[in-house]
């Protein structure tokens, strides 16, 4: 399969571009040698660890409040996170303008402690818009782009369509790319075959999968690990299960509130202390369900306020929780010893 890099900035990032750049054969296709060297360097980016997908703080008039974001990041910097995901689903990216999305990446990059990896959600519905957004987010300081599956014309989002989309985005991107599959929100999914094929691209280094199918996680790891591809769990509720089959890290909404506990679960899994890990995993399931499947971003923002962070309102049309929903969510945290 041919992966052609057309963007000059990508070429310079991947390796030294010269007038007589050497090439090599890959699968019957002649490829620039700088791409091969770039594959080795990008695949060495370590995604092992916990990444909270940061919510976007709004004022009561639904404008973005960057000061609250900086204050939240300052507190998260004290926790052992690998880095931050900016403009994932929990960032309400679908309700933001292009300019707001890019500026939020810039703010987090400036506020993050040294060494924190900044993963920016740059996915858009069209391939060209995704390429443009990815380049803007790279310029704003993103280290890695996380690209959600296009889904509006889901009836035509075939394996071939996904392959074409991700190949073009990754080949034009000046930073490495992570695939992002969240079927609960999009109604589409990336098959293991597509993930395995895309894992061979020199600029695609991993996937965040939020579906929670442990069998699929195991298959993805088995078919991609030889290329240095890394698999991330997309929720704290199934961390333990996916880690046992080879996932290296987690992007977890719950980490915005229970960051130390989620990081502890990660560490116990890596140390092979499975009995201790199982106890924490059990305690995290109900709170995690509360801030994701049951009450979503409005619930997450309420829970953030319980633990000293600014949650604030969501942007319309998302509505705040009812008092009854708040009580239900509080019970999920209290019954597991977190409040």
TrEMBL record:
One of its GO terms (molecular function) is (R,S)-4-hydroxy-2-oxoglutarate aldolase activity. The keyword Mitochondrion does not apply. It holds the Pfam family DHDPS. InterPro entries: Aldolase_TIM, DapA-like, Schiff_base-form_aldolases_AS. The active site is at residues 180, 208. Gene3D superfamilies: Aldolase class I. Pyruvate binds at residue 251. One of its GO terms (cellular component) is mitochondrion. It catalyses: (4S)-4-hydroxy-2-oxoglutarate = glyoxylate + pyruvate; (4R)-4-hydroxy-2-oxoglutarate = glyoxylate + pyruvate. PROSITE patterns: DHDPS_2. One of its GO terms (biological process) is glyoxylate catabolic process. Its EC number is 4.1.3.16. Keywords: Lyase, Schiff base. Homotetramer. Catalyzes the final step in the metabolic pathway of hydroxyproline. Belongs to the DapA family. This is 4-hydroxy-2-oxoglutarate aldolase, mitochondrial. It comes from Branchiostoma lanceolatum (Common lancelet). The lineage of its organism: Eukaryota, Metazoa, Chordata, Cephalochordata, Leptocardii. The gene is HOGA1.
